[in-house]
Amino acid sequence: MPEDKSKSSANHIDGTMPHQIHSPDFKRSQRKIEPSFVNEHGIVIGDSHYDSPNSPLNQWDLDTDPAIMAGPEWIHPTNDIGWNTSENRELLEDIPPTEPFSHPTRDAGYKSD
Fold it and tell me: pTM score, two decimals?
């Protein structure tokens, strides 16, 4: 019987995420790698395979609106490409930011004080 990847928590190798060539190293961070999960649309998030049968990625065409994959239910807390940004890598290494992080269209500090 094939392994059920949606229930597997082994989506990492020695504290790294193997699907990204320059993946951050969680071994030296206070954060712990979290297991993959199935979102409200039945799509496995965080397994590094990106191959759920009913995923919009497997049914993409010119008429597909990318907004269907927007929102927190599509983001894995520790297995996401966003960790490769310098700001997020500093968070993993517990380095305080050297300058305020800003977003071109959103107030990144909204409700932070």
Answer: 0.60
Tens digit of each residue's pLDDT (9 = 90 or more) over 61-99: 999 999 988 999 998 888 877 777 877 777 777 666 666
Phi, psi of 37 (to 5 degrees): -145, 165
Handedness of CA 83, 85, 86, 91 (dihedral sign): negative
Give the gyration radius of the chain's Cα atoms: 16
Estimate to the nearest angstrom the gap between the alpha carbon of 93 and the chain centroid.
17
Separation between Cα atoms, residue 102 and residue 108, nearest integer Å: 6
CA distance 49 to 27: 22
